[in-house]
Amino acid sequence: MHTPSIEDYLKAIYKAGAEGEISSRNIAARVGVSAPAVSKMLRRLTELKLVRIHPSTGIHLTPFGQRTALQTIRKHRLLELFLVRELGYRWDEVHDEAERLEHHISPLLEERIAEKLGHPDFDPHGD
For a 10 Å CB count at each end of the chain, is N or C smaller? Predict the structure, then answer.
């Protein structure tokens, strides 16, 4: 099991990669930490085989790291949609709440939420 911090870093790396720039500075800004904290975490993520760092091509998620990032993003998006549709949250309220919850729901709860929502293709933001 991965810690919320590890999951947050993997999400940040995944999203930075989707936008074309995975750098320590970009990751630090996304996670809200210092550059030395990013360096330390990147070493840990490499040891856990979630990230590869290549001298010429930079930081890359391994297939395992990418799967973990996508699972966390899926939980986040399901939670956002659940909060909007079922609990009456406004769209501008759901992100922070989903951010806190995404690290703590079980696979069973995740699947039940997906079922309740009809296995949606999009979250409240259209992602």
Answer: N
Joined together, the tokens standing for residue 48 give 């856990």
Give residue 89's pLDDT.
94
| Residues 5 and 63 sit within 8 Å (Cβ to Cβ) | no
- pLDDT of the residue at 124: 66
Structure tokens at 126: 């259209």
Please tell me the distance from the alpha carbon of residue 35 to that of residue 32, in angstroms, as a whole number. 10
Whose structure tokens read 């360096």?
39
Polymer length of the chain: 127
Instruction: Identify whether the C-beta of residue 27 lies closer than 8 Å to the C-beta of residue 71.
Output: no
Look at the alpha carbons of 46, 19, 117, 81 in this order and tell me if their dihedral is positive or negative: positive
Instruction: Find out whether 9 and 40 touch, Cβ atoms under 8 Å.
Output: no
> What backbone torsions phi and psi does residue 58 show, to the nearest 5 degrees?
90, -145
CA 8 to chain centre: 5
Give the model's pLDDT for residue 1.
58
Give the side-chain half-sphere CA count within 13 A for 48: 20
